[in-house]
Every structure is written in structure tokens, then in C-alpha cells.
Write a structure and sequence with these properties.
Largest sheet: 7 strands, mixed
Structural class: alpha/beta
CATH superfamily of the largest domain: Medium-chain alcohol dehydrogenases, catalytic domain
Number of helices: 11
Distance between the termini: 22 Å
Shape: globular
Number of strands: 18
Order of helices and strands: EEEHEEEHHEEEEHEHEHEHEHEHEHEHE
Helix content: 25-40%
Strand content: 25-35%
């Protein structure tokens, strides 16, 4: 058995504890990954704050990249030494969702997310007392060494920087995918993006990549205007200084936008995004809310204005295909990654990293290991 330094959450609304844990070897169909970078993402913050209840203790982290250190029996898609990106919604490849191109909805990944266990119902982490520690999204990238299903890793080019690969693993694929797959934004369209964090900034750049004519960024933190414009926003609305819905309509001749995206995870901006869509337009929700959150939607607008309201998980993408596709888009100069990274932290400063995220001080930050 191996040991690793990990950030363990023992109780919601408490700091994560940095400690050495035991990592059990991979079983049949599993791999062990030495993490090199892990994303500081808002989805984990929901668990830390108790907005999304999870059984504890648990090792969080779902966005990252690393190197395969060991493989279990029957593993064929990767071998020791391969560079990989973890998939935080692993899929079986056989169910109706997988066969219909919706692998993020697979029951296998859903079960791991809510139980904190491997598909066999067991865990692969132990603390110093021998207590079992749960997994997050099947990958737990906040451990320097993590055992996960073979289905939860995608092999990538070993020459591609692992810190860039980590950024692609959640924020980029979710944001760009929301534009290209969930909404299927057409060239020349008008777009509004509510929330300019890690997901929102990638929605903005996704809209730029498909040649949207007008990209309106909306956020309550004025300093995010620089990042939004760098990613491709043509306008920025500070939602703390007035009604953002009216501001969006003022910028679109009173009509509203063709497509609006909510990337925060709060009922109010979901309502605002829906209200900012013009007749026949589409509102896509990608933000993760509290488990008990409800948004008030004018249902008549669904009928009389023929608006569409839909959600997207993982950008409605196919991670095994689209993660490598996104690497190619970056290498060809179409996808920006360097501009997304604001700060890096050692694992020992992970609680400080989440405090900075809550304050809106970063576009994206990473936990990095040498």
C-alpha cells in the first residue's frame, strides 16, 4: 500500500485537514494516478460549505491531471507512465445515456458522485486511524496519489503541460461545451453570460470561438471585466450597479439576447438570465446550486415567447473525445489557457486558495505538485 499527502474534509464549514493517508492499490479495472495539478473549482466549495451534502470524511477535488503510477488487472487503455486527465463523471459506455452521447448522465458516475465510493461500494483511502475516507466524483484530485476507475481517465499527449491539462478537465470543457453542445450557439448570435468565474470565462471564450457577434459579460465584481474582455466579451455589465436584465436589453435594441448562460449557481441570476433572453431564445444553466435551491421562472414566457430553458452537465460533452479535441484547439491557437491561470498554490495552502476563490480574486487557480 502507498501513502500520499491529501486534503481531507472531515466536516462541512470546517477547513480541510492536510494529512498523510493510505491509498489502497488499484483493483480490477482501476488505476492509480500521481497528481501533478488540481483545479480549485467552485463545485468543491459547495461541498465544503455544506450546500451539497456529502458523507465525510472525504477527499475533494475533481479537476486535475497526472501520471499513471499503477494499473489493476484488466486495464487496457492506459499503462504506467501515461499522462492522463481524470473524468469526474466516469461512464460505463453501455447504458442508454452513454449510447446516446450523454456520458455525463451515466448512472455509474452519478452513483460515485453521491455515495463517495468506487463502483464496488468500497473506498481506497484510509486515514492514520484506519478509517475509510470517501472519494469525490470518483477521482479525489486533492490527494497527491489517487486510485480511480480506468473509465475515469483519458490518456493525453505526454508533451502537453499537465497544468494546462488540469484546466481543461472541468472549467474549460464545461464552459466551451455549454456553448457548442448544449446551446449550439450559431455564428453572429448575441450572447449574455451571467457569472465570470472559471466556467463563465470559458463560456465567453466558447462564444468567441464560434464567432458570436455580441458577448455580454455580467458579474457583480468589477475587477472581472479585464478577464472577461480578454476571453472575448464585447461588453461588461456590473450587476451590483443596476438591473442587469435591463442593461442587456439596452445593449440589444430592447430585444434581449439569442442565448443567455448562468454560470454562478444562484436562483436570482438564473432568473435574470432567463429574463434577458429574447423571444425564441435559449437560456442555459451550468452553475451548481444548493441542493434545495429553486428559481422563479415566468412560465408564460416559455409559451408566448417560445423561450427555451435547459441545463448542462460537463458542457453536455463527451469527455473521452472532447478533452483531447480541446488540447488540439489550444495547440492551434484557438483556445486560450495561459490567460485563465491566476495563481498556483501548494496543497498545504488549499484552504487559502478557496478563500481567494470566494472573494472573486482569481479567474482560475491550481494546486500544483513538483
Amino acid at each position: 500500500m502507498s501513502t500520499a499527502l491529501a486534503a481531507v474534509l472531515y466536516e462541512s464549514n470546517r477547513p480541510m485537514v492536510i494529512e498523510e493517508v493510505t491509498v489502497l492499490p488499484p483493483q480490477a479495472g482501476e488505476v492509480m494516478v500521481r497528481m501533478k495539478a488540481a483545479g480549485v473549482c467552485h463545485s468543491d466549495l459547495h461541498v465544503i460549505k455544506g450546500d451539497l451534502p456529502m458523507p465525510c470524511p472525504i477527499i475533494l477535488g475533481h479537476e486535475g491531471a497526472g501520471v499513471v503510477e499503477a494499473v489493476g488487472p484488466g486495464v487496457t487503455s492506459v499503462q504506467e507512465g501515461d499522462h492522463v486527465i481524470p473524468i469526474w463523471r466516469a461512464s460505463c459506455g453501455r447504458c442508454e445515456y452513454c449510447m446516446n452521447g450523454k456520458p455525463a448522465l451515466c448512472d455509474m458516475g452519478t452513483a460515485m458522485r453521491f455515495t463517495g465510493t468506487m463502483p464496488d461500494g468500497q473506498t481506497r483511502f484510509r486515514n492514520a486511524r484506519g478509517d475509510s475516507i470517501r472519494h469525490y466524483a470518483g477521482v479525489s484530485t486533492f490527494s497527491s496519489l489517487s486510485t480511480m476507475p480506468e473509465a475515469a481517465v483519458v490518456k493525453i499527449d505526454p508533451d502537453f503541460p499537465l497544468w494546462k491539462a488540469a484546466l481543461i478537465g472541468c472549467g474549460v470543457i464545461t464552459g466551451v461545451g455549454a456553448v457548442t453542445y448544449a446551446a449550439q450557439v450559431r455564428p453572429g448570435a448575441t450572447v449574455a453570460v451571467f457569472g465570470c468565474g472559471g466556467i463563465g470565462l470559458n463560456i465567453i471564450q466558447g462564444a468567441r470561438m464560434v464567432s458570436a457577434a455580441q458577448i455580454i459579460a455580467v458579474d457583480s465584481v468589477a475587477s472581472k471585466e479585464t478577464w472577461a474582455c480578454q476571453m472575448g466579451a464585447t461588453h461588461f455589465i456590473n450587476s451590483s450597479q443596476g438591473d442587469p436584465v435591463q442593461a442587456v436589453k439596452d445593449l440589444t435594441g430592447g430585444k434581449g439576447v439569442d442565448y443567455a448562460f448562468e454560470a454562478i449557481g444562484l436562483p436570482k441570476p438564473i432568473e435574470q438570465a432567463f429574463d434577458s433572453v429574447k423571444k425564441g431564445g435559449t437560456c442555459v444553466v451550468s452553475g451548481i446550486c444548493r441542493a434545495d435551491a429553486r428559481a422563479g421562472i415566468n412560465v408564460n414566457q416559455l409559451v408566448y415567447a417560445e423561450k427555451t430553458l435547459k441545463g448542462t452537465l460537463y458542457g453536455s460533452a463527451r469527455p473521452r473525445v472532447d478533452l483531447t479535441h480541446l488540447i488540439g484547439l489550444h495547440q492551434s491557437g484557438h483556445l486560450m489557457l495561459d490567460e485563465l491561470l491566476t495563481r498556483t498554490y501548494p496543497l498545504e495552502q488549499i484552504n487559502e486558495a478557496y478563500e481567494s476563490l470566494e472573494r472573486g480574486e482569481v479567474a482560475r487557480s491550481l494546486i500544483v505538485w513538483d
